[in-house]
Design brief:
This protein is mainly alpha-helical and 323 residues long. The protein has a domain of 182 residues: MetI-like fold, CATH 1.10.3720.10. The chain contains 13 helices and no strands. Helix 5 runs parallel beside helix 8. The radius of gyration is 24 Å and the shape is globular.
Length: 323
């Protein structure tokens, strides 16, 4: 691997600057929303005197840049405030909800990786055959159907009167209901997220593998007498997976968007649904912390993708000289 300390330091600086910019945007947008935090906490019938007093206690009477600095410093020290809607510390709320969304994201990524990459390789190896056309046709079907349509269809068929084998929504932790109950609540959301993501990843893997299998160094490997399995798995797959790694990292961002939709469809109490509820109820502390946390995860996922790049192809060097 060829990732120099200088490159990592430079990327970390860029990440910090991006996160600061995002924090300014998030704070600015949530600040200009109708109403203010004091009115939300006290309710619509609060007297102007009580609202003014609470504004002073919350620092809302300070200049906007002072409010931003106070908010950012509190966020960095783990003091994320209290949810207006749930009357709970924002940090605890996001950790609980975020863990539930993390289950969906990790299981979905593992599923699409284990299914789409092999399918893409098989389609490329049998290029222009019935197998290739069949796999490609299914992928187009997956791409053409959005999450809310797929989720609703699965909900009607597998949680409705047709089969009714899964719960229609909600969530049960392993400690409360055991692994079986826990899995029953995440199977349909994960399936919905997987169907669309598999299509994109499989098509990219297929396209890259088709080009690589036609390349000169693959022809050379075949002329050396290597069997087709060794040529494909040892020589072609390693280079063919490089764009896939990038798409997987980028999928984390689109996956978060899909999770928001899927959690609403299945009434799954995760981070995505929490963000939607915080917008609806103007729960500013939750909204600010949630968006900034998602941005943090997404930016570091891209850094991880660059590092994995160097593992897949040692000729790539970030900030140093290739061997």
């Amino acid at each position: 691997m060829h990732v120099s300390n200088r490159y990592l330091a430079k990327r970390l600086v860029y990440i910090i600057l991006n996160l600061i910019l995002i924090s300014i945007i998030v704070f600015g947008i949530t600040t200009v929303l109708p109403g203010n935090a004091a009115e939300t906490i006290l309710g619509r019938y609060a007297t102007p005197e009580k609202v003014s007093t609470l504004e002073r206690e919350l620092g809302l009477d300070q200049p906007i840049y002072i409010q931003y600095i106070d908010w950012l410093s509190s966020f960095l020290t783990g003091s994320w405030g209290t949810s207006f809607q749930h009357n709970r510390p924002v940090f605890d709320l996001i950790v609980t909800r975020g863990a539930r969304s993390l289950y969906l994201a990790v299981i979905t990524l593992a599923t699409i990786t284990s299914i789409s990459i092999p399918l893409g390789i098989i389609a490329a190896v049998y290029h222009d055959s019935k197998i290739d056309f069949g796999i490609t046709g299914v992928s187009y079907l997956g791409i053409s159907v959005p999450e809310f349509v797929t989720g609703t269809g699965l909900l009607v068929v597998f949680a409705g009167p047709v089969f009714g084998v899964f719960p229609a929504g909600g969530y049960t932790s392993i400690s409360d209901g055991g692994i079986r109950q826990w899995l029953s609540h995440i199977v349909l959301p994960v399936t919905t997220l997987t169907i669309l993501s598999i299509a994109h990843l499989m098509r990219l893997t297929r396209t890259e593998m088709v080009d690589i299998l036609k390349s000169d160094y693959i022809r050379t490997a075949r002329l050396k007498g290597l069997d087709e399995k060794t040529v494909v798995l040892k020589h072609a797959v390693r280079n063919g997976l490089m764009p896939t790694v990038t798409l997987l990292a980028m999928s984390l961002g689109s996956l978060m968007g899909g999770i928001v939709v899927v959690e609403e469809v299945f009434a799954y109490p995760g981070l995505g649904r929490l963000i939607v509820d915080s917008v609806t109820h103007r729960d500013v502390p939750v909204l600010q912390a949630s968006i900034l946390l998602v941005a943090f995860v997404y930016t570091f996922a891209n850094l991880a993708a660059d590092i994995v790049y160097t593992y897949l192809n040692p000729r790539i060097s970030y900030g140093g000289s290739a061997r």
